[in-house]
Prior knowledge:
Layout: H1 2-28, H2 35-42, H3 46-52, H4 56-60, H5 62-77, H6 85-101, H7 104-116, H8 122-141, H9 151-173, H10 192-201, H11 211-224
Helix pairs in contact: 1-2, 1-7, 2-3, 5-6, 5-8, 6-8, 6-11, 7-9, 8-9, 9-11
Amino acid sequence: MARRSQQRGSTDRTAAIVEAAISLAMEGGFENVRQREVAARAGVTLRTLYRKFPSKDELLAMGLLRAADELDRRIAARPIRERTAEGRLAHLFAEMTDVFCANPNLGRSVIRVLASGSCAAGSPVLAYQGRVALLVVAALRGPRAEGEPTVVEVERSTLLIQVWLAGLFAWAAGTVAWASTLPTATAVPGCSPIQLAASAVSPPALLPRGNVSWLILLSTTLARSGCSAAR
């Protein structure tokens, strides 16, 4: 009984620390998350904070798990029921993007950790990427698909995620407004700019015939996103 109570107390402290860090990020972005202030707001000592989260990257990476949970809630509230793969993917990527853009300060903070490659943040990053990959493959295949995904389906899903992340990183870094990270479908004569964007983030092996149309779809979805207003 005593051990169970201790475990519950540890879980509560961890949750309080994560909540404090996310609140500070929402208020002022990455630089606003300082360990001493996180500890004070969470009601724990610095020693407890560092024992649970040795680095700020590891702490803010927990925001990725919350982003994945929020994405699940959004899809549950507005299920992906479009009949075409294009419609399903447009719906999914719009929701994925809006999760980060709902609060730009928090979104940019979490994306900064996602892009950092920090080993400390590895577990939440891999967990987030795995959950998103399953959703993208499912949207691509549709509800009636049977059996395991094909190699082309996995490659196409991976490419879409990589291009989406490249645009997301550029928006988070403040180098571009979201709507200009990739050209829209109507502004792509011959599709060469999109092919260039794809080659910049993906090895040639991930460009099976027909993927350009999927990149056009993704760029159009990004251009319509509400992130263009979150500067």
